[in-house]
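Table S2 (text version). Query chain:
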Amino acid sequence: MILNPGATFKIDSADVPDWLWIVICRDDAADSELVAGIVPSPHKSFDPACEIGASEHEALLRHSFVNYAQAKVLTPSRRAAVADFFLDYGNISEAMLLRVQQGCIDSDHAYGEHKAMVRRLVPEIR
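Corresponding structure-token output:
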């Protein structure tokens, strides 16, 4: 299973938060993706770097935000661990993807290595 930037999904497992997840970018050389959960507002870890309205994705019922603090790099072994629980929720628009990617750079909560990954893999973002 390869996940491309802009893909959204849920993981149907009690071990994973019931969030809509989004692929921020993909590193083909490392066969990995940077993903983050889209969490309904208000939430204790609110991050204003990228807010998403309920009308911007069919799976969102409320105003939400990208939770960069909980972003993860999906390696092949992590992808394999969740493959049986994967639920595809389609792709977001290119404009929304750029907002999500820029939000990672702008977020005070995103890890430095995640920001570096976006800068390296997404030439439109600096």
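Notes on Table S2: The longest strand covers residues 64-74. Residues 7-121 form a domain with the SH3 type barrels. fold (CATH 2.30.30.110).
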